[in-house]
Amino acid sequence: MGPAELLAFDREHLWHPYTSMTDPAPTRLVTGAAGSRISIDGVGEVVDGMASWWSAIHGYRHPVLDAAVREQLDRMAHVMFGGLTHEPAVELGRRLVALAPDGLDRVFLADSGSVAVEVAMKMALQYQRGAGRTGRTRFLTVRGGYHGDTFDCMSVCDPAGGMHALWSGVLPEQVFGERPPALGADIAEWADGFRALAAEHADRLAGLIVEPLLQGAGGMHPYPAECLAVFREVADRHGLVLVFDEIATGFGRTGTLFAAEAGGVRPDVLCVGKALTGGYLSLAAALCTAEVARGLSACDSGVLMHGPTFMGNPLACAVASASLDLLAAQDWSANVRRINTGLQALHRVEAADVRVLGAVGVVQLDHPVDVAAATEAALAAGVWLRPFRDLIYTMPPYVCTDEDVATLCAGIAAAAAAG
């Protein structure tokens, strides 16, 4: 089929994320990708400001990652993880334990970020059951968060302004504190309120789950690193399992390898995904402490009740290890700082609230974005963006050049003016 036929079939039969099937939004046909750019039929090469929803940190068609996939294909593409193991999974586990904050040395390999968060929540619930606290079945979190699209994940996303308000009354009712204050703000009043809320509900709480340092799809909201110490303090005081959802922030995006490091805090469970495989294949992980592993094993089941069909997929594990090796071999920190410097140009965008953290640039308008108009304007400027709500933002590949970053800033400015 030619481009027109492909797009016509797509429009008639394929669902896209958060899109109507009866009145679908326009889609564009990608014909190739290399480095920091994707090729779009009828448009040409454009800088990918989204890094495939924040995952392709090394860009596209990276020779090291391509080779890792090909070499693993020559051995095996997949084998079940129940009762079996293999070198790619073991090697990836070894790398993750070495990179993660000390003590997070038990690794559950999941097949997506949402699943990793579901597993983390199960860990917390089973840990409390193992301790005989069967009434602790709820989670404490903050407003403005986003943790995925599966059911328990949706329950800890923002209950009003988030994407899952539709499911109010169906989802488990969790306990929501106020969103942490903005970067640079005094956190004292917020911290006192959060402590009081936790104390009020402590006897029914199993865990505390947050996105550390940067709330992603709930509003692209960065907040002070000091808040992480408050989360740790509250969890310790009330016997809660502290879960950090670093699906979006892990592997350097906010300026430290893990956002938790910015606050000097170690969670009890750490979820990673997205950039884990460099954007090649779907894979995530939930890492926990030995204490959590022992505690959940003491519950009535005796085992962690989860086991995806594609758990520990060898192809995904092999390319993830290659991606982590590539990250370590390169000066990712310098690249993130360089991108951060370039993104400061976004502060010149008028009539907008601009936020820059690590390799993240956000422009928040005072009105909902006209997504179609903003997308067209960005493409005309040589940039692919995916605005949502009142936000136009970028989380680009770390391999972007200074010229790429300047193009991204110009594209965001054009999108803001049009949208």
TrEMBL record:
Its EC number is 2.6.1.62. SUPFAM superfamilies: PLP-dependent transferases. It is found in: Cytoplasm. Substrate binds at W53, Y146, K274, G307, R386. Pyridoxal 5'-phosphate binds at G113, S114, D245, P308, T309. The keyword Repeat does not apply. InterPro entries: Aminotrans_3, Aminotrans_3_PPA_site, BioA, PyrdxlP-dep_Trfase, PyrdxlP-dep_Trfase_major, PyrdxlP-dep_Trfase_small. The modification N6-(pyridoxal phosphate)lysine is found at K274. Its main location: cytoplasm. The keyword S-adenosyl-L-methionine applies. Catalyzes the transfer of the alpha-amino group from S-adenosyl-L-methionine (SAM) to 7-keto-8-aminopelargonic acid (KAPA) to form 7,8-diaminopelargonic acid (DAPA). It is the only aminotransferase known to utilize SAM as an amino donor. Homodimer. Belongs to the class-III pyridoxal-phosphate-dependent aminotransferase family. BioA subfamily. NCBIfam families: bioA, PRK05964.1. This is Adenosylmethionine-8-amino-7-oxononanoate aminotransferase. The gene is bioA.
